[in-house]
Structure formats: structure tokens, C-alpha cells
Amino acid sequence: MVTEQQVLLVDIGNTSIKFLRLSNFQEIPQSKSTLNAFEQWLTRNPEVTTLFISSVRQTAVTQPLREYCRQNKIVVNEINTEQSAFGLLNSYKDVSKMGVDRWLAMIAAVHLTHKPFVVIDAGTAITVDFVADGQHLGGWIAPGFYSMKNALVTSTQKVFSDDEISNQLQLGTTTERCVANGCLAAVQGVYARARAQISINFEDFDIFITGGDKNLFAFTCNDGSILAANLVVQGLARYAKKQLFA
Ligand SMILES: Nc1ncnc2c1ncn2[C@@H]1O[C@H](COP(=O)(O)OP(=O)(O)OP(=O)(O)O)[C@@H](O)[C@H]1O
Ligand SMILES: CC(C)(CO)[C@@H](O)C(=O)NCCC(=O)O
Ligand SMILES: [K+]
After folding, report:
1. Domain that holds residue 62
2. Of all protein residues, whose CA lies closest to atom 3 belonging to ligand 2?
3. Which ligand is closest to the CA of 147, given by its number?
4. What family does the Swiss-Prot or TrEMBL record give for this protein (predicted)?
């Protein structure tokens, strides 16, 4: 019999790996930037016997982790995007093409509200997904804040950026401030369009914001949007609880 302390929920994104024990799945996850660093963490925490993982990387990239787990008798449960689960229906014809992080964030959100909702996951990419009555209506994939800045700086010769983030949208008077505020304007635009889009058909709805860059959405705090620590990990927790304890 496994306990919740022995179970680790692992969200493998394009930039980083976030993980948390099932016993405290609502807290802020730990983060490692490489699979190697994550494996080292596992070595130091031998009480972990079971992983529930979601990965948006190629299978070959996570193969060494699987091999490590096989050698150390750690059970790996990999969750994949489904046509339907937990009362949520996917709109993709080929569900294998939908990033499992999007699916899991929706699985978590559908448990948190009965209203139509939007999930915005801001990381390497910004994904936006619309759900009403348990039906995924469709969504958007846009570049994330860092990806945007990176693409801009890479494809121009005289534009450069720094790592400073504006909390408020301002007018830049240096190249760096123009870039940071331009990318923030684009992020705010995604949010504004998402709100406008769901408002076309619904008066009452929730907007959930999650992901490593959710703090860029601090400007939404007065209009009822909900900032969630990590909805992908919370979605994994639902699968883990169902599989282990239901
Ligand atoms: N070297 C880097 N490469 C990419 N993003 C970086 C880098 N350094 C800092 N960041 C920041 O981290 C954000 C992604 O953070 P994090 O990995 O926590 O988000 P995420 O939602 O988990 O993304 P993913 O699931 O794609 O890994 C980027 O949007 C960016 O602001
Ligand atoms: C869009 C990302 C990169 C966001 O992490 C991920 O969900 C992904 O790789 N998706 C595959 C394409 C799709 O969801 O249609
Ligand atoms: K993400």
C-alpha cells in the first residue's frame, strides 16, 4: 500500500520540471531546470516509490528518467491526453496532439468551478483553453513572455533586452524597457482577448491563470481572475488519487 508521501507528481515542461508530493499537492512545487538535477533529487529522496508524470517533451528525452526509475524500482505512471475523463470532453479529433499540460490544467479547473471557464497557462508558451458544460471548446497557443523576447532579440540586430519585468504596463524610453513593455502588452492582449471571447457566449465565467509566468498577470487581480499555483500538478493529483485510492 503506497501512502501520499511516497507519491510524487511531476510536470515536465519545455523549460523546467515541477514536482510535489501527493500529500501536499496544493503547495508551490519545487522546480529543477534539467532532468539530471531531478534524478539527483530522487536519489536523495528514496522514500518516493511512485511517480505520476506528464511530459510535453519527446519520449526520447525522458527515456533516461524511465531507465533510472526502472533500476531503482520506482513505479512510473505517465498520464496522456484523453478524449474524455473526469467529466471533461476534448475537442481535438487527434487527442494525442494536445499537450498533456493543457489537458491536466483543465482537469484541475473543471473540479474547481461549475461555471464556463478559461485556463491560461503562462510558461514557455501561453496556452488558453475554453471550457463550458464539461466540453473543451478549443483554445490558443501563443509564445510565452520569454520566448517572445528571445525571438525578437534573435531576429533583429539592434534590439536587446534585460531580465527586468514591469509590474505595470508603461511606455519605454530605452530599448530594454520598450521590449519588456511590448511583450507585457502582448501578454495582456492575450488575456483581454480571452475575456472578450468567453464573454460573447457567457455572462458568468471563471478565468484561471497558472504557470511559471502567472505573476505577469498580477494586473488581473481586481477583475476576479484566479491565480493558481500549478494546475498541471493539481490535475496529476486527480489522476493519482483515482488510480491509487479510488
Ligand atoms: N532560460 C530560460 N528559458 C526559458 N524561460 C526562462 C528562462 N529563464 C527564465 N525563464 C522564465 O521562466 C518562464 C517559464 O517558467 P516555468 O518553466 O516555471 O514555466 P512553465 O509554465 O513551467 O513552463 P514550461 O511548462 O514550458 O516549462 C519563462 O516564460 C521565463 O519567463
Ligand atoms: C503548447 C505547449 C508547449 C505548452 O506547454 C504544450 O502544451 C505542447 O507541446 N502542446 C502540443 C501542441 C498542442 O497542444 O496542440
Ligand atoms: K506550460
Report:
1. 1-112+231-246
2. 125
3. 1
4. Belongs to the type III pantothenate kinase family.
